[in-house]
Amino acid sequence: MESLGIEFLSVFGMPPVDFVSLAADLGCRHISTGLESNPYSSLGYPPFSLREDAPLRRNMIAAMRDRGISISLGEGMNVRAGTDVRDRVPDLELMAELGVRRVNTVSLDPDPDRSVQQFGLLAELAASFGMETTIEPGPGLTIGDLPTALHAIRQVGRPDFRLLIDTMHIIRSGSTPDDIAALDSDVVGYIQLSDAPLVPASSDYMTEAMFERMVPGTGELPLLDLLTALPRDRVIGLEVPIRSQAEAGVSPHDRLARCVEATRGLLARL
């Protein structure tokens, strides 16, 4: 199960060294990370900054080396109106220092043409640090679905600018396992796995996506069909934030052990 990882969103601001240990204890080989903690004060985690805290970066690198963990995805390289991704070169340098293999982007800039121009610049800059770039389509984003993402990938025209498939986003935005099976496997760079109802319980999609997803196999997404359609050698990051359980006192280990076990069960059925 070397392809399994735990995503940054799933641990609600857990300190980086603890996060590394959690992934290793769960038998996973990868994590994703941003450079700043998310402010979840209700869970009691102190804020951290891998951007500002060089000793923390060194400690995290040492912990990853000792526990056999790597960072499969660097988060936060998003395109926004009024900003330029060229200003993120220092962050890309820090990601490279941490051993990040690829960085992920979404666009919050309402201008599709400018978004694509920024994607191309980001991919070029990331490549200069030895990293590839993935684009993640999702409802409410400028690149909101699979066809729009594929169009952006064609416009950027780089083999190291590829698609991130988030199982919740891809189904909720209208695609099917058959659509995924029809893709050239090389276009898929990364997979994020979670479950959800097919019909949202709330109109606030982003809150559901960030805070209340479901253990794989306990919702209604066609996960087995999606996994069958996807390449077998990509990292599968478990992006399953369940804030209600975290605030009820369920430990990160217990919450995510269920996700790992359920995912292994799905993969064993392929």
Description:
- It is a single chain.
- It contains eleven helices and eight strands.
- The mean pLDDT is 96.
- Strands 3-2-1-8-7-6-5-4 form an eight-stranded parallel β-sheet.
- The protein has 270 residues and is of the alpha/beta class.
- It is globular, with a radius of gyration of 17 Å.
- It has helices at residues 16-25, 54-67, 89-97, 112-128, 146-156, 167-172, 177-181, 205-211, 223-229, 243-247, 252-268, and strands spanning 4-6, 30-33, 70-74, 102-105, 132-135, 161-166, 188-193, 236-238.
Q: Measured on Cα atoms, how large is the radius of gyration?
A: 17 Å
Q: Outline the low-pLDDT stretches.
A: none
What is the H-and-E element order?
Answer: EHEHEHEHEHEHHEHHEHH
Q: What strand line-up does the widest sheet have?
A: 3-2-1-8-7-6-5-4
Number of helices: 11
Q: Name the overall outline.
A: globular
Largest sheet: 8 strands, parallel
The assigned structural class equals alpha/beta
Quote the average pLDDT.
96
* Cα distance spanning the termini: 13 Å
Helicity level: 40-55%
